Amino acid sequence: MILTSHAIIGVAAASAFPTHPILAFSAALASHYIVDAIPHWEYDLLSSKKDRDNPLNNDLAVVKDFFSDLIRVLFDMCLGIVISFFIFHFLGFNFNSLLILIAGIAGAVAPDILQFVYFRFRREPFKSLYVFHYYIHSRTEKLKKHFIVGIFLQILTVFLIVLLAKYLMNM
Questions:
Q1: What angle, 0 to 180 degrees and rounded to 10, lies between the N-to-C axes of helices 64-90 and 98-121?
Q2: What pLDDT, in 10s, does the model give residues 138-159?
Q3: Cα separation, 34 vs 168, whole angstroms
Q4: Best label site of 61, 65, 99, 125, fewest CB within 10 Å?
């Protein structure tokens, strides 16, 4: 999933705990791993180096493409924040504080951020988190070739999860 989708889904998960920021963060964190297990489309980082034989050797190099990747990731993250705020504000989700919204976004994107930390430090607990994330993550090579289908499925997944969260909130 892209960070925008993770952010929106993370806030939906966090909305189950409107007065408990730590539980909201934890629900959003769990949501990341759950939705990453679903086949989905995602963009490649041009500065990433993948080792198919040993994923622990994967890396992100600071080369000429790194800065365009950084801009893409920051745009994706900012878009996730803005869309999350508008969706959950206008759909009438009852957040008692902005802290829950922030906890939802932070928890949902934390696993991807921790991958970058692993690339830099390559020690525990980052190694175990990276391995867990790698093995739970759906293999998306087929969807990468079908951009339109992949984007549609991702939007559909986000829509259904937000709808479910809204339904559960109104029970």
A1: 160
A2: 776 666 677 788 888 889 999 9
A3: 18
A4: 125
